[in-house]
Amino acid sequence: MSYDKVKQAAKLSIGNKQATKTVEQGKALEVFVAKDADPRITIKMVNLCKKMGVNVTYVDSMKLLGKACGIEVGAAVAAVVND
């Protein structure tokens, strides 16, 4: 499962604002989107990733994505950052 990629990432941008910045700056290697997140939030991110050529991986839930990111709350979006 792709959660391993999130757990092993040296640097993450967690949350829509942070991840959006990372993608816009061309620093995102891959973006993870929770399937149960509000589509009004995630659709912009998915479209931005398409435009920027960033791979989008869907994960089952915000709770699991948050856990993989090492945070106590759910995460709708997380980006693996290329430093």
TrEMBL record:
Keyword Calcium: no
Keyword Glycoprotein tagged: no
Annotated ranges, domain Ribosomal protein eL8/eL30/eS12/Gadd45: 5-82
Organism: Paenibacillus mucilaginosus 3016
Domain of life: Bacteria
Record protein name field: Putative ribosomal protein L7Ae-like protein
Gene3D superfamilies tied to this protein: 3.30.1330.30
Matching InterPro entries: Ribosomal_eL30-like_sf, Ribosomal_eL8/eL30/eS12/Gad45
Gene Ontology cellular-component terms listed: ribosome
Lineage: Bacteria, Bacillati, Bacillota, Bacilli, Bacillales
